Amino acid sequence: MRRAATTAAAAAALLLTLASTASARTIYERDSLYSHITVEEAYGVRGLYFNGWPQSEMLVNDPYRGGLEYTEMFHAALAFRPDAKRVLMLGLGGGSTQKAFYERYPDITLHTVEIDSVVVEVARKYFSVPKDRRHTITVQDGRHFLSNSSETWDAVIVDAYFADYYGNYAPFHLATKEFFTLVKSHLSPGGVMAYNVIWPDLSWGNVSLRVMHRTLSSVFGGVYMAPARRSKNIVFFCTAGKAPSVKTLRTNGAAVDKKYGKLPTSIAWAASQLVSQQPNTRGLPVLTDDYAPVETLSLVFR
Asked: Tell me: the pLDDT tens digits for 38-97?
């Protein structure tokens, strides 16, 4: 299972590279309030781009397969909550994570919050994102949605990025102590938050990674990292209560694998990728609503 997941991830990385070459055909292009959105296709791979930056990919002949490597790491959330029934996702893109959860876990209901209505239209039309009672979509800012909700979820997955012509950045109001405290208040007992961070240099000394770890640790009792080196991402997993050991999470993952049968990505394998040690955060700030320079962290701090 581990070899299959690794092979699939490597193939996906190669396909994304191919799809972003000059041979790609643009099949959709539009400006929304937030981005210049394009959908491109090459070699049987369809890719979603915001202002030229890749956001998602899909195999055209198998829409529920494919996706950037880091999206498979999100499945480790079920190692924290093996009995999860309700999952909230902030950010949609091409819906790789939504489609995978929808297909693999039929007893889980999903609610996605996406700020850009055009992204929702594109995801449904070009990326086969489902819409029914098991997957509802709200067009709204994710933090505003949580601020006005009284619901709780077993897992909250945050994969929201702003892309401009200079790079990809987490929206600052979704990267602060206040926001993470809000998410924590919407987790059911034993719930988990998964949070994607771009990891461009693959270094444990990366400033954005270390600042985010310090900020998350100021709110959550347990903080873990799942490195996705091929897609250059880190997925943080955060728990409100006592932090389980990685060994316990692997055991939980094996139970989930048995429950659902053969999965494209083994939950036990995803849990085995988790790293629990803390990087060096000395001298780095906790991001707050009053101070969150997410675009320039690497310039301000060394």
From this structure: 999 999 999 999 999 899 999 999 998 767 899 999 999 999 999 999 999 999 999 999
The CA angle 44-49-53, to the nearest 5 degrees, is 120
- One domain for residues 11 and 135: no
Residue 150 maps to which CATH number? 3.40.50.150
Q: What is the pTM of this model?
A: 0.90
- Residue 58 structure tokens: 């899909």
Task: Tell me, yes or no, whether 205 and 167 share the same domain.
Answer: yes
pLDDT in tens, 128-157: 999 899 999 999 999 999 999 999 999 999
At 113, is the secondary structure helix, strand, or coil?
Answer: strand
Q: Do residues 289 and 173 lie in contact, with contact meaning Cβ atoms separated by under 8 Å?
A: yes
State how far the alpha carbon of 14 is from the alpha carbons of 11, 117, 199, 203, 231, in Å.
Answer: 5, 30, 18, 22, 10
Task: Show the domain range for 195.
Answer: 69-300
Which one-letter amino acid corresponds to residue 256? V
Residue 64 covered by a domain: no
The DSSP secondary-structure symbol of 142 reads H
Q: What type of residue is 276?
A: S
User: Helical H runs in the chain?
Assistant: 2-19, 69-73, 77-80, 96-104, 117-126, 142-147, 177-185, 207-217, 246-260, 267-272, 297-300
